[in-house]
Amino acid sequence: MRIWLVALLMAAAHPALAEVKPLPVPRVTLYPGDVITSAAIGFKDFHVTGDTARRFAIDPAQVEGKTARRTLMAGKPIALAHLAGVKGVRKGALAHALLRRGALAIDLMVEPLEDGAAGQMIRARNNESGTEIRLLVQADGTLEAAP
Fold first, then answer.
1. Residue 81, SS3?
2. C-alpha span between 28 and 64 (Å, rounded)
3. Any residues with CB less than 8 A from the CB of 34 and at least 6 apart, and which?
């Protein structure tokens, strides 16, 4: 909130450095963990500087499908730092894992020991052996051993 206010004051002090652009804003207040859909996004005109464009969403594609890390107030610009990717796997919920070594492929169910989004390495427990392994979260929510 403070960053937005500073950017707005800077734009008012130097109107030649800012231009008015429509930025995506939440139509309703979104709370941490809420997934942002296209229906939840509207537009509102703001004075935009180069700094604003780096810190805030300027295109709806930057926010759609993400989750709110902090409360996003209706009608306010969306700070990119307040967004997170959708969790691919949840701690404690069984997940499908694939382990490959050359021509050998092992398919098993594991228990993630932490939440993870696509592209993250997480710890998981093989329930049959009790062994803890590190796996890479895939976009489809499955886990795979890192190469």
1. helix
2. 14
3. 40, 67, 68
Q: pTM for the complete prediction?
A: 0.54
| Rounded Cα distance, 114 and 93, in Å | 10
3-state SS, 6-75, equals: HHHHHHHHCHHHCEEEEEEEECCCECCCCECCHHHEEEEEEEECHHHHHHECCCHHHCCCCEECCCECCC
Residue 75: CB atoms within 10 Å: 11
pLDDT tens digit sequence for 89-109: 889 999 999 988 888 988 999
Q: How far is CA 32 from CA 4, 87, 117, in A?
A: 19, 13, 16
In angstroms, the CA 70 to CA 36 distance is 12
